[in-house]
Amino acid sequence: MQTERKLYKFNDPVYYTCYNQLTYREIDEPFHRLIHIMEGSFHITISGKEYEAHTGEYMLLTKRNLARIKMIPSPRSGYFRLICVNISDKALKRYFQQNTYPENRHYIPVTAKKLPPHDLWDILFADLKLSIHKNYVLDRSLARMKSQQALYVLTLIDKDLMFSLCHSDELPRKDLKEYMEQNYMFNVPLKVFAEYSGRSLATFRREFGKLFHTTPTRWLVSRRLEEAYKRLSTGTVRPVQIYLELGFETQAHFNRCFKQKYGIAPGQIGKSISKEEQTNRHR
Fold it and tell me: How crowded is residue 283: how many other Cβ atoms within 10 Å of its Cβ?
């Protein structure tokens, strides 16, 4: 049985979680997150690119990204444990009210980056790890201070990365076809697809129609069903294993859409293909 232990909520200034079995999550990042893997392995996929971090390592995830994560418990302890400091827009604004804005540097958009080992990262997380060991939840004001400390340490260690964080609102205009092919399985509002692809919702709808000759909603359902058919045709997966991963909220909705498009229930796909193969063999 999967168990999860949390001392803080996902969008609190500080977040901690612990699992005792392989766990998958789909996330829409509202903040920058400075992550420390206490135990286990952390794998994240953003726009088709994969990143990973392991026990004792640090990673920075930037906001406005649709991501899939896999958390693998340590073979030694049987647990996956992660703690992170969330850096909101308010935290960035508060930081620069008291500190110098980073000098002009070459801006490189960053989605995820594993951070090199450094004593300052260890010091930053030392009291957080102690509070978890003691099962003590930091006062919210103290938790907010961690984001300020994280920004200060980042300024000292990697000025280029800090500069990129400050310009993270300048979303580049992405190739719409490529972006949708990489992210069609995420079950998020259209305004999120629009914003994260670097467009207003009105522009997104207009360009989408010219490119795909249909509405975003219809295309998303059709594309998800095409991928479902492809996977089910292998005979190695069942509908219950894939409907959530492909962006359908319920299996009933998935079944209904699938049958409407292909004229057969998704659970029958593998069986019908197997019968067809057997028939072909006997000819």
Answer: 4
Using CA atoms of 172, 61, 107, 64 in order, give the dihedral in degrees to the nearest 10: 20
Owner of token pair 């479902």: 228
- Residue among 166, 131, 154 at smallest CA distance from 7: 131
CA distance 79 to 147: 26
**How far is residue 25's CA from residue 35's CA, in Å, rounded to a whole number?**
15
pTM for the structure as a whole: 0.81
Measure the CA angle with vertex 131, ends 126 and 134; round to 5°. 125
Distance CA 64, CA 30 (A): 6
Per residue in 33-54, pLDDT tens? 999 999 999 999 998 899 999 9
Torsions phi, psi for 48 (to 5 deg): 85, -5
Q: How many CA atoms lie within 13 A of 275 on its CB side?
A: 5
Tell me if residue 209 falls in helix, strand or coil. helix
What is the C-alpha separation between 188 and 5, in angstroms, rounded? 26
The answer to whether 79 and 39 have CB atoms below 8 angstroms apart is: yes
Handedness of CA 129, 132, 137, 140 (dihedral sign): positive
Q: Are 56 and 37 in contact (CB under 8 A)?
A: yes
How many other β-carbons are positioned within 10 Å of the β-carbon of residue 90? Answer: 11
Q: For the chain, what's the residue count? A: 283
Given a cut of 50, the residues of the chain with pLDDT beneath it are 1, 273-283
What are the φ and ψ backbone dihedral angles of 71, each rounded to 5 degrees? -115, 120
| CA separation for the pair 230, 253 (Å, rounded) | 18
Report whether 247 contacts 187 (CB < 8 A): yes
